[in-house]
Specification:
The structure is a homodimer. Chain A is of the alpha+beta class. In chain A, the strands form 2 sheets. Chain A has a 3-stranded antiparallel sheet. In chain A, strand 2 and strand 3 form a beta hairpin. In chain A, helix 3 crosses helix 4. In chain A, 24% of the residues are buried. Chains A and B meet through helix 5 and strand 6 of A and helix 5 and strand 6 of B. Strand 6 of chain A pairs antiparallel with strand 6 of chain B.
Chain lengths: 152, 152
Amino acid sequence: MSGYPLRQQRLYDFGLKLTNPRKVIINLLKNTDKHLSAEEIYLDAIKTNPSIGLTTVYRTLDLFFQIGMVQKYDFGDDRARYELTDNPFKNQHHHHLVCVKCRTIVDYTDFVNEELELMNKTEKILSEKYQYKIFHHTIHFYGVCTHCRPVQ
Amino acid sequence: MSGYPLRQQRLYDFGLKLTNPRKVIINLLKNTDKHLSAEEIYLDAIKTNPSIGLTTVYRTLDLFFQIGMVQKYDFGDDRARYELTDNPFKNQHHHHLVCVKCRTIVDYTDFVNEELELMNKTEKILSEKYQYKIFHHTIHFYGVCTHCRPVQ
DNA sequence: ACTATATTGAAAATGGTTTCCATTATCAAT
DNA sequence: ATTGATAATGGAAACCATTTTCAATATAGT
């Protein structure tokens, strides 16, 4: 029993200090179901603490990514997007469906168990065959949503 | 019967002109099994025609991507990488296994039929459920290769 | 509170990609 | 083959997400 919330404990476990910018960014990620970019996170963060700099946001996100606390994605719009690894707002395991026009991202969970099973099997074989230590995979579907395709 | 090679025909079909930089870039992509970046393509292209500019390489690759002739990927190393959609050097359908240290990319085809079947099924359901017109998907595995992990 | 040390913020640098624009090449019509 | 309308090109400069630099500040164990 440390008395610390889970995510703050995680910082301690890695010998990291619990600073205000880190708290602010954790809280903000905890309360969104979106895939925010560094700039979006920065603009949200300064509402809570106007002195937070964009540099710190980048550094903090990278740090969280390094310790596995956030996932970092590229959905093809020239900026990284982040989501908390264990987000109470989301289903634990999901993959992504991206509208290449409006950049809306749907977290889908359909067939996710089946997918996961196949991914695990594939991961095992690939690890052995190519001698890779695999730690992560992504599945992205790209398309155009109804809203961006009004006719038909 | 047009008399043109397939890929050149494709340019005509889209009302595009067959210029030297485009020919050079097509040929070079046809003869590699790698996932080249724009700069790598540029450095290769100027061996054939030194007057080709980097700008044109970017424009040409984007054009080819728009008409579906090349695939454009982000493997997390801060630059886009390209491969010909139908490359005689490669298995038609494959997915990617990326070493996050040395950035080697393995095209794997293991379980690709099983994967494809599941992807098609998933794609169908997602299309209907979320009303997306899906045209593309990616599966990336990320890990570290033996070479980058010498001990054990 | 004090101190060693990690962290921060602002400004400048970086680097892949895009834009601008004057020049040049392509190709359909002659 | 030549012409002319138009698309494509190349170089320089701009763009913009991200990183680096460095002096100032905050954190956490004592």
